[in-house]
Amino acid sequence: MAAAGGPARRPVDVAELVAGVRAGRRGAVSRAITLVESSRTDHRAAARELLAELAPDPAARPSVRVGISGVPGVGKSTFIETLGEDLTEAGHRVGVLAVDPSSVRTGGSVLGDKTRMARLSVNPAAYIRPSPAAGTLGGVARATSQAMLVLEAAGYDVVLVETVGVGQSEVTVAGMVDTFLFLTLARTGDQLQGIKKGILEIADVIAVNKADDDGGPGDHRAEARVAARDLAGALRLVHGRGEWAPPVVTCSGLTDVGVDEVWARVLAHRDHLGAEGLAAKRAAQQLDFTWALVRDELEQRLRRSAGVARVRDEVRAAVLAGELAAPAAADRLLAAYDD
Ligand SMILES: Nc1nc2c(ncn2[C@@H]2O[C@H](COP(=O)(O)OP(=O)(O)OP(=O)(O)O)[C@@H](O)[C@H]2O)c(=O)[nH]1
Ligand SMILES: [Mg+2]
After folding, report:
1. In this structure, is residue 33 part of a structural domain?
2. Other CB atoms within 10 A of residue 59 CB
3. Ligand 1 pocket test target in 76, 78, 221 with most atoms within 8 Å of CB
4. Which of 47, 55, 215, 302 has the smallest CB count inside 10 Å?
5. Domain of 4: which CATH number?
6. Is the CB of residue 302 less than 8 Å from the CB of residue 308?
7. 107 backbone φψ class: left, alpha, beta (φ>0; ψ -120 to 50)
8. What digits encode the pLDDT tens for the residues 146-177?
C-alpha cells in the first residue's frame, strides 16, 4: 500500500495495475481508482495510459450503468444495498460509486458512512467506493466516470451511481449513466412542487420509496400508490407520444418489496434504447463529457493564471466600489488572461 503518501513517490507501474484490475483484484481496483482521482500531473498522465489500456472491448456486452438520485434520506443507500444484494445473488458483480456535491464543499461523503451498506460492503461480488472528497463538481464527475471504466474492466457488470438530489449533480450523473432512477416519497407534500420539473425530464424510471409499514402510522403502501398514480399522470404531460414515458412504481428498499420491479423497469428502459440507441447515447455522453473536461480545465487555468492574479484584487476593489461595471471588469480579466 505505498500509493497513499509514502515518502518515496514511486512512479506508477501501469502495466502491473492493468493486470491487477483485469484480474479483478480489489487492491488493484482501489489503487487504480485513486490514480484516476488524482490531480497530480504525473498521475494524470499515468491515468490516461491506464484508461487507454483498460478500454472496453467493443464486441463485449456493455455494462449496466444506473444513476440513483433523490433527496437526502429518501433511502438511496438502503435501496442500493438491497438491490446490490439481490443482483449479486443473481450472479452479477456490482460496483457502487457516489457523486456528492456536499463533499466538494465540506470534505464529507455520501457513502462515507459505510455502515449504511453494511452487508454490501463485505460482499465479495460488490465494490463500494465513496465519493472523492475534494475538487469541483466537474472534477468529481471526471473521477467518477473514470472509476466506472476501471470497475467495468475489473468485471463489474452493473455500476450504480448514487447522488444526492440537489441541483447540478443530478444532471451530471444523468450524463454518465444509461438509465437514471429517481427515488421519491409519498409524503413530500405537493408531489409536483416537491419534485423539480427538471428531474421529471431526466428521470427514466421513478420509484416512490418507503412503501412499507416500517415508518410510523398510516398506510404507507396505499399513500405510495396514490402518489405514483399522480406522478404518472403528471409525466404524461411532460413527455410526448412515442417517447419513453418514465414508469412510476412503488417500492421499499428496506423490506425488499418492489425492488425487483424497479430493476425490471430499468432493464425495460435499456431494451427500449436497444443496442444502437445505447451506443449512440454513450457516444453523445462522451462528446458532452469532452466539452465538460475542456471547461473544467479552462477554469483551472483561469484560476492559475499569473496575469489574472496580477489584476484580480484591483478589479475586485473597483467593482465593489462601483467604479467599474461588470462587463468592463470581465474584459479586463480576460485581457489579463490572454496576455
Ligand atoms: N420505512 C423505510 N425506511 C427506509 C427505507 N429506506 C431507507 N429508510 C430509512 O431512511 C433513512 C435514510 O436512509 P438512507 O438509505 O441512508 O437514505 P439516503 O437517501 O441514502 O440518504 P443520504 O445518503 O443522506 O442522501 C434511514 O433511517 C433508513 O433506515 C424504506 O424503504 N422504508
Ligand atoms: Mg446515502
Report:
1. yes
2. 5
3. 78
4. 55
5. 1.20.5.170
6. yes
7. left
8. 999 999 999 999 999 998 766 778 888 899 99
Q: What is the average per-residue pLDDT within 211-227?
A: 81
Give the CATH number of the domain where residue 128 resides: 3.40.50.300
| Model confidence pLDDT, tens digit, residues 43-65 | 989 999 999 999 888 888 899 99
Distance 252 CA to ligand 2 centre (A): 15
Q: How many domains does the chain have?
A: 3
Residue minimizing CA distance to atom 2 of ligand 1? 210
- On whether both 123 and 246 belong to a single domain, the answer is yes
Using the mean position of ligand 1's atoms as its centre, give its distance from the Cα of residue 77 in Å.
7
* 50/66 same-domain check: no
Please tell me if the CB atom of residue 73 comes closer than 6 angstroms to any atom of ligand 1: yes
Give the C-alpha separation, 291 to 306, whole Å. 24
Which of 231, 252, 273 is the last residue in one of the domains? 273
Q: How far is CA 143 from CA 26, 255, 276, 321, in A?
A: 18, 33, 27, 40
